[in-house]
Design brief:
The protein is an alpha+beta fold. It has helices at about 1-25, 35-110; strands spanning about 115-125, 130-135, 145-150, 155-160, 165-170, 180-185, 190-195, 200-205, 215-220, 230-240, 245-255, 260-265. It has two helices and twelve strands; from the N terminus they run H-H-E-E-E-E-E-E-E-E-E-E-E-E. It is elongated, with a radius of gyration of 46 Å.
């Protein structure tokens, strides 16, 4: 039985070999032997498949590289935009400071009182203290309780003991700050006090007989011996006649206390009631 199986296998191998020899001699329509033509067809199909896969891979890689390049370019452009925005803001800040300095210098030239320009170098770290520090001190003639003003109006007064090259200024909007005042039109006198309200100033001890109007300017009266007469404090925003002898007035300050860069210290003191200046 085993010998029959071997004989059958050998017969199949001889038959297959004979067919290959015949195929090698028989030509196809292209003039090539059938075996060679078949092998060529198989290899050509494999080459087309490989080439197609290579083209797809190359296209994907090219697109990936291009996308990476676009992403890097976008990052560079975004950084450049941020740099330009920072430059614009810096230039705007410089222009704002220059305009404020020019305004203060014009104010200084128009004042009769002797003043000294100073730059704000720090604010107070204590919440609600409402203090700033300027770069002028006793070496520049700065003394306690000298008035400090800005382009728009009253800022405050020198507070505490100045050092040789620096001094603290109590802002008028501080809770313990005050200035003697008079309304511009109705000539009502009183005391402007700082606080935490909105607006942050109130004018007390105003006689109820004075008809104070909303929108009327409030000026320093000079009666406190600190602020010379005639400097602008603010504008009346609310005026209510009280039930007693005083009216309730709320005052919007003329100065923007969130933007203080350059100030003027008034070196001259207000005259006393008898006409003599303060020492």
């Amino acid at each position: 039985m085993a010998s029959v199986r071997r004989t059958f296998v050998l017969f199949l191998l001889l038959t297959f070999g004979h067919m290959l020899l015949i195929s090698a001699q028989v030509q196809s329509k292209s003039g090539l032997p059938l075996v060679q033509a078949g092998a060529f067809s198989v290899f050509a199909s494999m080459q087309q498949l490989t080439s197609g896969m290579a083209d797809v891979g190359g296209s994907i890689w090219s697109n990936y590289v291009a996308l990476r390049g676009v992403e890097a370019e976008n990052d560079s452009l975004q950084k450049r935009v941020l740099e330009l925005e920072g430059l614009v803001q810096s230039q705007a800040a410089i222009v704002s400071q220059t305009q404020e300095l020019e305004g203060v210098l014009r104010l200084q030239q128009s004042l009769v009182a002797t003043t000294l320009a100073a730059r704000v170098i720090a604010g107070s770290p204590a919440p609600g203290a409402n203090m700033i520090t300027i770069d002028r001190g006793t070496a520049d003639g700065i003394e306690l309780d000298m008035a400090v003003i800005g382009q728009q109006g009253v800022i405050g007064r020198v507070f505490g003991r100045p050092t040789q090259h620096a001094a603290q200024v109590q802002l008028l909007i501080g809770r313990q700050a005050a200035a003697a005042a008079v309304t511009e039109t109705s000539l009502a006198v009183g005391m402007v006090l700082g606080g935490a309200g909105d607006p942050p100033l109130e004018m007390e001890y105003v006689d109820v007989l004075h008809d104070v109007a909303v929108g009327e300017r409030v000026l320093t009266s000079g009666l406190d011996g600190i602020y010379p007469r005639g400097f602008v404090i603010g504008t009346v925003e609310r005026a209510v006649r009280g039930s007693g002898v005083y009216s309730d007035l709320r005052v919007r300050p003329a100065v923007d206390f969130t933007r203080l860069d350059v100030v003027l210290v008034v070196l001259a003191r207000p005259a006393r009631a008898g006409g003599e200046p303060q020492p």
